[in-house]
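BUG-433 | component: ligand-complex export | severity: low

The export step for FNR jobs runs without errors, but we want the raw record kept on the ticket for reference. Input record follows.
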Amino acid sequence: MTQPPSLGRTRQIEILISGVGGRLPAVPVEPRRLAAEAERALSAEAWTYVAGSAGTEETADANRAAFERWQIVPRMLRDVSQRDLSVELFGERLPAPLLLAPIAVLGMAHRQADLAVARAAAAEGVPMIFSNQASVPMEDCARVMGEAPRWFQLYWSTSDELVASFVERAERCGCGAIVLTLDTTMMGWRARDLDIAYLPFIHGQGLAQYTSDPVFRKSLDEPVEALTGVRPPRTPASVLALLEQIYRYPGTWAEKLSGKPLAAVQRFLATYMRPSLSWDHLAWLRERTKLPILLKGILHPEDAKMAIGHGMDGIVVSNHGGRQLDGEIGALDALPGVLAAVEGKVPVLFDSGIRGGADVFKALALGATAVCLGRPYVYALAVGGERGVREVIKNVVAELDVTLGLAGLTSLAEIGPEALVERRTGSTSPRGE
Ligand code: FNR
């Protein structure tokens, strides 16, 4: 498959020619500037939620440090004039080895939230993984995407009935796979969020998959047990929070004023995480869907073997962008061990720390089949809406294309560990040689 013109090296020309007319890209190309502009565009709560990681944020640093440990060793004089970035994943050919990671509460970044991302992903042919914690129901996103590829990310709550309902809805929405996220059986210790005492879900944000679900809505007729004895102090801020919950709850004014919005938040908080989840539960999910199931958050080689043993179809090596466990292994550092355990039996995807095309190249060279882009597309959404997301996708893919060519390669199949060397003082020996 040849690259659509918007997805290849032509991106550089597009930017530079527009510059002749004085027009700059809608969002910065340079990753650090993109983050800095997003910080300016977002509210303090939104920036803290999106950019923050767990604890001292060592894991997020480890993610980047892991990329910096690998260096590309290019080969010369190899005719790289024709390049192909396409890859096949679960029977579908994608224009590039890139997906959009599931990200909660995109409504904090932009008014059009998941809809803007869905449109951008569809326009660029890059699959969007709908988050379980989205700001827009999956049906609405699917509608604006036409036939474009999309997957669904699942959090396994304490209600199996709700989990089954989400999976059925994802199937009806044309999702090509279920990504079961395993690393969030409880919420990470997010010091930045705790310091401003803010969680979007309590304000009724990021609950769209739930409040649009018949099983969840029915559960609101039953009494919800209080999560703790703590009640918010009665202040103007708590009244405002209640108004936010009412505003975000879908339905008629009668429903909005029925107490359901508060009940929805309480029900959600009481049920959305399931620390008791174990390998034994997977058979139940396996029986319920014919869609490929990928486990997201696998970092240990033994867990990778267990995933295959339990009939899973793929793995996403990820540490949730460092948001869950502080002091954890950098995700890229975990990739080789997982790949060795998987022995090519299922596709292994990767996320956590991807900021540009050269990062994608390194993850592929170590053996990943494809990668998921996370925070950078949220930053682009905040700065430039749908257009911003399209641009960041184009930029990452274009940089991958340029990196591939400059490394002396022409297709993903040619990218292997021999293209990398592990950074060691004085070492120049490519890996595998
Ligand atoms: C996430 N991530 C995430 N993962 C998931 O499975 N379900 C979700 O709802 C979310 N929500 C979410 C919100 C925000 C604000 C962030 C930054 C991340 C994790 C995400 O899918 C991915 O693993 C990370 O974003 C990868 O790290 P980087 O590359 O973004 O740093």
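Assignee comment: Attached the raw record above. The chain has two domains: 30-192+274-422, 200-271.
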